[in-house]
Amino acid sequence: MGNGLIKDIWLLSKRSVQTTLRSPFSFIPNLLISMFFLVVYESGLSGISQLPAFDGADYLAFILPVSVVSAAIGGAGGAGQGIVKDIENGFFSRLLLTPASRLSIVLGPIIAGMLQLFVQTLLIIMVAFFMGLNVETGFFGIIIVLLIAIGWGLAFAGYSAGVALKTKNAQAAQAGTLIFFPLIFLSTTFVPYELIEATWLKVAATINPTTYIFQSMRTVLIDGWQWWEIAQGFIAIAIACTITITFATVSAKKAVSRG
Fold first, then answer.
1. Is Cytoplasm among this UniProt entry's keywords (predicted)?
2. Which candidate, 179, 5, 16, 25, places its Cα nearest to that of 110?
3. Confidence (pLDDT) at 46
4. How many Cβ atoms from other residues are within 10 Å of residue 78's Cβ?
5. Nearest 5°: CA angle at 125, between 120 and 128?
């Protein structure tokens, strides 16, 4: 049973990856936008790193997580879009007639989306190194950043897949991911928490899980191995993944019951 599930997930993930590779323009714009954020924000806002609250931190390392998280949000939509396409062309219905695990039908596109995000994040980090990025924790710090990015992407992909299975509509699945973009800007996106002056924005940043994702990545990149700061990002990921994957699973069961 276990081997059958793993095989089903592998085959459906492989199919989703191959589908993505055949349509590179489905992910290239998102990658370019994320790199655009990195280049523009570094060149236009790096001067504020001279403020005392930054404590001499490199602004490139400070803004890099914003580019990575924007890639995670944009890339997550691919999981939902892939499921909607399968529903519209009838492939999803044919899958339901096979012995393939229902869980693998959901996880295949989600895992493919995570792999896509992994490649995108690597490319973004490579560009950052060409721009002069210095990582306080070295190679293993980059591994932590990649793990955080993949975990956060998994949470977004689960939500995207859930919306796709619930609505069976491409526009709704795409629009569903847009609600996450405000999470980026209602956070410590451009300045540290200490420099946020508006009380309402401080409250929003405090309850916003993206704040803790940024904080974990920035700790690794700038401050070093401060374990509690890093752990908060993984806790946020665990909570978000539990919610979104559960949502996707429930939506999948309802989609299967409706045929």
1. no
2. 16
3. 67
4. 28
5. 130
Question: Which pair of structure tokens corresponds to residue 45?
Answer: 């806002």
Report the distance separating Cα 58 and Cα 33, nearest Å: 22
pLDDT tens sequence across 120-147: 888 889 989 988 888 889 889 999 999 9
Nearest-angstrom CA–CA distance, 176 and 182:
12
For the chain, how many residues are written? 259
pLDDT confidence band for 1 (50 / 70 / 90): very low
How far is Cα 229 from Cα 217, in angstroms, rounded to an integer? 9
∠ CA 204-187-123, nearest 5°, is: 155
Residue spans of the domains in the chain: they are 2-258
User: What pLDDT is recorded for position 202?
Assistant: 86
Q: For residues 135 and 22, what is the distance between their CA atoms, to the nearest angstrom?
A: 35
Region of 90 (left: φ > 0; alpha: ψ -120 to 50; beta: rest) is: left
pLDDT in tens, 2-23: 566 677 777 777 777 777 666 6
User: In the block, which residue shows the tokens 């995570």?
Assistant: 114
Q: Nearest to residue 84, comparing CAs of 169, 27, 166?
A: 169
Instruction: Name which of 58, 53, 66, 63 is nearest 195 in CA terms.
Output: 53
119 within 8 A of 66, measured Cβ to Cβ: no
First to last CA, the chain: 23
Tokens of residue 63, six digits:
């803004």
CB 226 within 8 A of CB 219: yes
